[in-house]
Amino acid sequence: MSSLYQILHIIPSRLSLCDLAGSERCKDQRSGERLKEAGNINTSLHTLGRCIAALRQNQQNRSKQNLIPFRDSKLTRVFQGFFTGRGRSCMIVNVNPCASTYDETLHVAKFSALASQV
């Protein structure tokens, strides 16, 4: 009889891809809608950085857990399940190798180093 029964193991999973669009510097002449969009992108990325930093602090100091500001941005609300669940996250970082963007590249490298520790 055992040959008639098969045990099925179903593992639910989810794959989400998100392009963070990069941080937007306002060195060029932007106005109106483009300037507002750049500001919104920077605000979301800043909030993501704060969430990652708070998560890292909570990992290091388990006795005092800090509030993680997931609710401060739509982006971080989307990512909340990835950082608080049992899932895995992977970040792919793309930087510009030009010398003129050294400061931005360094900032992105530091951000990704912090994110890799969470």
From TrEMBL:
Question: Which SUPFAM superfamilies does its entry note?
Answer: P-loop containing nucleoside triphosphate hydrolases
Query: What InterPro entries has UniProt attached to this entry?
Result: KIF11-like, Kinesin_motor_CS, Kinesin_motor_dom, Kinesin_motor_dom_sf, P-loop_NTPase
SMART domains documented for this protein: KISc (SM00129)
- Example GO biological process: mitotic spindle assembly
This protein's record includes keyword Coiled coil: yes
- Coiled-coil annotation reads none
Annotated Kinesin motor domain residues? 1-118
Q: Name one GO cellular component term.
A: mitotic spindle
An example of a GO molecular function for this protein is: ATP binding
What are the subcellular locations of this protein?
Cytoplasm, Cytoskeleton, Spindle
Q: Which UniProt keywords apply?
A: ATP-binding, Coiled coil, Cytoplasm, Cytoskeleton, Microtubule, Motor protein, Nucleotide-binding, Phosphoprotein
Belongs to which family? Belongs to the TRAFAC class myosin-kinesin ATPase superfamily. Kinesin family.
Q: What is this protein called?
A: Kinesin-like protein KIF20A
Query: Organism source for this protein?
Result: Cricetulus griseus
Q: What is the lineage of its organism?
A: Eukaryota, Metazoa, Chordata, Craniata, Vertebrata
